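Backbone-to-sequence.
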């Protein structure tokens, strides 16, 4: 390949990377409702300012959320007021058709600048990781209880736009439903229902009714 060809290929890679990045004006498509289903995402009880995440029971009259790619069974209402510690967008893989973005969120002392300055935080492959040098800025179990990686499923275009505009360091309030996604071919993706767990299966899968930057 000529030098000009290498330059053109490099330019294409740069533009493609930008187009799929959070800096791009492109808003990822949200998962469309199943044919004939009227989408409805009623907000659960809302967490008070500065409080830990609020989990609430599912009302008896709330049915499943039926999407073209999966059936979402609500497991609990969920509302969180948190700081965005990291975000990672996904464009490939089955989960990306439902959840284009993961947010690592922190509450309590995991919103404090002096704590976060002593942590290295990253996301990859639908995981959230943190590490420190020397002594941890908080007891490790408090770090685990006060932060989590959450898979965001926008319920409509407005929510997808709001999710696309979230940046690291933002304070956000997110309300929706922790869900289990299933489909006829045996696919299953289930949310954690506790903030105390770590490792595989510890992430929340959130069908987002509303997202506001505070």
């Amino acid at each position: 390949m000529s030098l000009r060809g290498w330059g053109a290929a490099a330019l294409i890679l740069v533009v493609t990377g930008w187009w799929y990045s959070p800096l791009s004006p492109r808003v990822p498509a949200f998962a469309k409702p199943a044919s004939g289903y009227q989408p409805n995402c009623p907000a659960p009880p809302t967490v008070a300012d500065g409080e830990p995440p609020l989990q609430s029971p599912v009302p008896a009259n709330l049915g499943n959320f039926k999407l073209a790619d999966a059936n979402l069974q609500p497991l609990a209402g969920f509302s969180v007021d948190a700081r965005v510690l990291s975000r990672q967008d996904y464009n490939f893989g089955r989960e990306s058709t439902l959840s284009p973005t993961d947010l690592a969120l922190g509450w309590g002392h995991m919103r404090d600048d002096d704590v976060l300055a002593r942590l290295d935080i990253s996301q990859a492959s639908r995981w959230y990781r943190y590490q420190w040098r020397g002594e941890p800025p908080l007891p490790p179990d408090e770090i685990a209880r006060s932060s989590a990686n959450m898979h965001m499923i926008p319920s409509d275009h407005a929510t997808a736009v709001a999710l696309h505009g979230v940046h690291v360091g933002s304070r956000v309030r997110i309300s929706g439903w922790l869900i289990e996604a299933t489909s006829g071919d045996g696919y299953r993706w289930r949310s954690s229902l506790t903030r105390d767990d770590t490792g595989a299966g510890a992430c929340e899968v959130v069908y987002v009714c509303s997202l506001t930057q505070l």
